[in-house]
Amino acid sequence: MVGWNMTPQEVVDFFKDMGKTVLTFCGYSGIRYEDEQAMLQIARKVLAEYSPETTLINIGVTSVGIGAVYPLAKSMRFTTAGIVTHLALLKPDGISESVDHICFVTDTQWGGKLHGSDELSPTSKAMVACSDVLVGIGSGGGIGGDELRAGKALGKPVQFFPAEMNHEVAIRYAKSRGLPPPESFWGSDPHMFDE
Description:
This protein is of the alpha/beta class. The protein has six helices and seven strands, in the order βαβαβαββαβαβα. α2 links the parallel β2 (21-27) and β3 (55-59). The protein is globular, with a radius of gyration of 16 Å.
């Protein structure tokens, strides 16, 4: 653990001290992927373009969904890090064992935009500020989408690969919130970063 109640600036300072290019992956976490192996093939191709000696892999500490990139990155000799709200301490079983450095940010939500605002929450603000390159695999909407759009607006390189969320989990998630089943399993906009 790097810190329990960090500010975005404290997270940025820690990442700068690492002295590496920060490659951040965004995507589905709790809802997971319909085809996790396809997602991991995309991640492997992206990781192969970077050197483990000079690149730090960053995700949101999850052990599922996009968090499956952590063990892959470790197997390819990358150092890993994660930025997450301190709310994750309420669900410690969801934290990947393959994260070398974890920064817990003081935040009232899990990330994304602040309610009723275009401003990012402290967790997402730290995630974007620390990232040199952002890679989205699925999740055109939600927290990951907010972070990818914010990174692009700041002129940071952003790569986006459409991917389907897990159908069964997405339907169950919608039902648990009294919502109709999703009309699409591709996130809110699978073409949001098409050139």
